[in-house]
Amino acid sequence: MRKTICTLLAFAFLVAAMGAGFWFTRQFIESKEKQDSFHELAESVLLTTPAPKPTPTPAPDSTPPPYNDPEAPTPTLEPVHDIAALREMNPDCIGWITVPGTAIDYPVMHTPDDPEHYLRTAFDGTYSSYGVPFMDARCSLDSGNLILYSHNKFDGSMFTALIHYGDLGYFEGHRTIIFETTNGVRQYNIFAVCRTNAYGSGIYQSIDFTDKLDFLDAVQADSQYNVGPRGSSKKFITLSTCDISRQDGRWVVVGELIE
């Protein structure tokens, strides 16, 4: 009897190990396929003229001139990706998001009538557990706060880099967001890192606000780090991904438009 039980346990362990191995292999293959597809997409719409490097963003303890200083240089960025070509491939695409020094380098989708369509849909419309970064259905490109969502994946892709902003050194070294749209190229300076709740945070309710101080108060309430905006802009961007360590948890970074 004991021998039979041991045999059954060994068999169950073997089946479980084979199942886990199959799952990891499948995840690895899917990860490579999806990242290859994004790289191929990026290369297919790269413009021939390279864009200037973004203006470096200062560490929190430095004292640079404010962005609205008339003598301070205004960043001039040229597009890297042909957004019009992307829209011809898929009219749901509204731009391309890049956070230099991280893996965040993807098209951005927007489907107001189907808010989470690209949570599980690839750029070409097929099913994908990776999805594509997408903008909140309530937003437009003219909104005061552009909220962008994407997954936190085991392989470090999509918006997984946001979880690393919990480290102050990483935050200080990755302060720039570039958002290319049909309206031009926008550069944002990340000033706040937040750990919050998907349903309880005021950040997600602040989109077309009349007083930016209300929005900044909502950001401050959830901030892990917050050096404050350095300019007078009333335009912001929020990148959001899951914090799997907590129920309905989210990692969020907030950037101010450099004008």
* CATH fold descriptor: Sortase, Chain: A
- Please state the overall shape, judged from the principal axes of the Cα atoms: globular
What value does the average pLDDT take? Answer: 85
Number of domains: 1
Summed up, the helix count is 4
Number of strands: 9
- Main sheet attributes: strand count, strand direction, barrel closure: 9 strands, mixed
- The CATH architecture is Beta Barrel
CATH class identity: Mainly Beta
**Class derived from helix and strand content:** alpha+beta
Proportion of residues in helical segments: 25-40%
Distance between the termini: 77 Å
- The unreliable regions are 14-24, 62-74
Rg on CA atoms, Å: 21 Å
Please name the fourth-level CATH homologous superfamily: Sortase
Could you state the order of secondary-structure elements as H and E? Answer: HHEEEEHEEHEEE
Portion of residues in beta strands equals 15-25%
How does this model look, in words?
The structure is a single chain. The chain has 259 residues and is α+β, with helices and mostly antiparallel strands. It has one domain (38-60, 67-257): Sortase, Chain: A, CATH 2.40.260.10. Helix content is 26%, strand content 23%. The protein has helices spanning 2-44, 83-89, 168-173, 212-222, and strands at residues 93-98, 105-109, 134-135, 145-149, 176-181, 184-197, 223-226, 236-243, 249-257. Strands 1, 2, 3, 4, 5, 6, 7, 8 and 9 form a 9-stranded mixed β-sheet that branches. β8 and β9 form a beta hairpin. The longest helix is centred in the first third of the chain and has 43 residues, at 2-44.
